[in-house]
Design a protein that fits this description.
Structural class: alpha+beta
Distance between the termini: 145 Å
Order of helices and strands: HHEEEEEEEHHEEHE
Number of strands: 10
Helix content: 25-40%
Largest sheet: 7 strands, antiparallel
Shape: rod-shaped
Length: about 260
């Protein structure tokens, strides 16, 4: 009886316990989705690094180009204001002397003596610029007492950078214009002549093919020359030939 009761009790206890499954389900695992997110993040990070590197390179190149342009521009500006600044050429007459003279009877009572004279002027042209100065043919007019007594022309040429060129200009004085100023007393004892000259020179200075300046030089000179007479040649220490007693020039340069 006891055995039968215990068996029924055990069966009742087994019925009260919950039913146990035969196998426990495994936890949910999603390896594919996790790997895709990681790869996407890695790819995004790599692209960000490449973009930053490319941007840094572009900024560096742009900065170097801008700096170079600014430095070169400042250098050109400084050179243009100092070394390559176009300066005014200087024109002057150093001396005047007589090359030839001839005298003869004049055309009438008012001009008893006619004289022809050839003067040579030593002219210097200084170019203080860093580039050569090229000038065209120049013209020199000689006046005596308001009348033109000679017109001379000098050929075109050039003056090198920071150089001075000297040239001789021949002036043939017109005898009929000097006839009124020349007399027998002047030929015998000597005479002074006050001559005025006007010279024009047009030229161009081109620096590095970029800076170009057209220059016009106008020079007015007052020249006093003394012509020795025949009697002076017989006196020791007398003035013979022609002497330049004074040259005063004023130049006007326009650019």
């Amino acid at each position: 009886m006891a055995t039968a009761g215990s068996s029924r009790g055990a069966a009742a206890a087994d019925k009260d316990e919950p039913a146990r499954p035969l196998a426990l389900p495994s936890p949910a695992v999603h390896p594919a989705s996790h790997d895709a997110e990681a790869e996407a993040q890695a790819a995004t990070g790599w692209r960000s690094v490449q973009y930053l590197r490319r941007r840094r390179c572009v900024l560096c190149c742009g900065g170097c180009c801008v700096t170079t342009v600014v430095v070169v521009g400042l250098l050109i500006l400084v050179l243009a204001l100092t070394v390559f600044k176009v300066k005014e050429p200087r024109l002057g007459i150093n001396a005047v002397w007589l090359t030839a003279i001839s005298a003869g009877p004049g055309s009438g009572a008012g001009s008893p003596v006619a004289a022809n004279a050839t003067l040579t002027a030593d002219v210097s042209l200084k170019n203080p610029n860093a580039a050569s100065f090229r000038f065209s043919q120049s013209e020199t007019d000689v006046y005596y007492r308001g009348q033109t007594v000679s017109v001379a022309y000098a050929p075109a040429g050039s003056v090198g950078a920071d150089r001075t060129v000297r040239m001789n200009v021949t002036l043939d004085l017109l005898g009929d214009r000097l006839a009124g100023a020349t007399n027998g007393t002047g030929l015998l004892f000597g005479q002074e002549y006050d001559l005025d000259t006007h010279t024009e020179i047009n030229g161009t200075v081109k620096v590095l093919g970029i800076i170009k300046k057209d220059i016009e030089i106008r020079m007015n000179c007052s020249i006093v020359i003394e012509l020795g007479g025949i009697a002076a040649a017989l006196v020791p220490g007398g003035v013979t030939g022609v002497q330049s007693k004074g040259v005063n020039c004023v130049a006007d340069v326009s650019m």
